[in-house]
Amino acid sequence: MELELRKIYIKDIVFDEKTHVDSGVLYINREEISKLILEDERLSEVSIDIAKPGDSIRIIPVKDVIEPRAKLKGEAFPGIDGVLDEVGRGITYALKGCAVVTTGPIVGFQEGIIDMSGPLAEYTPFSKLNNLVLSIKKKENVSPHEHEEAVRVAGIKAAHYIAKQCLESEFDESETFVWNDLSVKLAEYPDLPKVAYVYQCIAQGLLHDTYFYGRDAKEMIPTLVNPLEIMDGALVSGNCVSAGSKTTTYHHQNNAVIRECFKRHGKEINFIGVVLSPMTTVLNDKYRNSIITSRIVEMLGADGVIQSQEGFGNPTTDLMMICKKLENKGIKTVLISNEDAGVDGKSEPLPDGTVEADAIVSTGNSNANLHIPKMDKVLGDLDALEHITGGFEGSRQEDGSLIVEIHGIMGSHNLQGFSKLGAVTK
Fold this sequence. Notes:
Layout: E1 2-9, E2 12-15, E3 20-22, E4 25-28, H1 30-37, E5 43-51, E6 57-62, E7 64-66, E8 69-71, E9 90-96, E10 98-103, E11 112-115, E12 130-138, H2 144-164, E13 173-178, H3 182-188, E14 194-202, E15 208-212, E16 215-216, E17 223-225, H4 227-231, E18 235-239, H5 249-253, H6 256-264, E19 270-279, H7 283-300, E20 304-308, H8 315-328, E21 332-339, E22 360-365, E23 369-372, E24 377-380, E25 402-405
Helix pairs in contact: 7-8
C-alpha cells in the first residue's frame, strides 16, 4: 500500500463568502458550516469562531480536535462521514497548522481546556494551531450518548467538508508512505530489530469510546492494522476521558509513535506492524485482550514492542497485563504512561504495575497545579470548569484567574508522547 499525504500549510483563517484556501490562508463560509452541522436534528444551535495562536481566548470544555483531511478519490473518516471506504492508500490532502475544535455545554465530566495564550498554552499543542471552534448546543431530551455522537459527527463532518473544498489546490509539501506486505517487511532489514507498536485505545462505554471504521471499539478484539489506515482517518475519538491523556482524533491522525517509527524504519529499527488493542472495564476482557495482543505480536516475530495507553486508572491494568505477557515471551517492551502522583508529586504514580515493566517513558505528573490568568474571551461554557477533570470547587479566583490541574489541559500529557511534559528518575 502507498499513501501520499499532500500538505497545505495554513498560516491564517478568516471568514469569507467561499470556503477555500489561497496562499496559506483558509477562508471559511460560516453559513455553509452552520447549515452542515444543523442537518443533525438533535442539535439546536452552533456558534462558529476563530481562535489563533496568541489570542486571549479560552476554549472550554473541549470535546475533540480534528485536522481537516480529504481524499482525492474516495472518502476519509470512513464510517463516520460519507461512505464506508477503504483508507490508507491513494492521495490525501491534509491542512496542516489548523484544526476544527468542538466545544459547548458539557457532555461528560472529563473534557478539557485550551488557552490560545498565557502559561496554559505551553502545555497544549493545540494552542499553536489556527482553530475553527464549533460551540454546539443540543436540543432538549437528547441523551448524553446521543449528545456525544452528534458533536463527534459534527466535528468530523466540518473538518472533512473544509478539506474537500481544498482538493486539487496547490500544496506545499508531499510525503509518501509505503507499507509492504508482511513477507517483504520481515525480510527488509535482517540486521535491524523488528519492532511492533501496541496501540491501546479506550473502549469502556459510559462516554469512553473510540471508533474504528465507524464501529465502536468495544465490539473489537485486538487487531493487526495498517498504520496508513490510522493516518487516513480510520480511527476517530469518541470519548470524554481525562483531557490531558485523551487521544483526540488529531492525535490519531498524527500518531507520534507511528510517525517516529516511520522516521527510524530502515535506520534503527524494522517497523513491522501495529496491533490495535481495545481497553475495556471488564476484567476477563482485559485478560482476553492481553492474550490475543501478545499472540499477534509473537506471530509477527517482533523483537521489541512500543506500547501506549489512553486514559488513566484501570487502563494501566491493560498496559501492565500486555507488557507482562510480552516480556515473558522474550519480547522487549517499552511502555508510555503518565503519572498521577498527587499535587505534591509524592503519591503512588501508577495504579497498577508488574516487575516486567522495567522500561517506562513518563509523560509527567498530571496532578500538578497551574495558575492561569483570565482570558478576554471564552468559547464554550466556563461554568463547566468545576465539573471537568482538573477543575474543582474553588478553581475560580476572585480576579478571574483559575487554578487547574494539568489533567484538565487538552493534550498536556498525551500518552503517545505528543507533548512537552516528561519525567526522569533521580
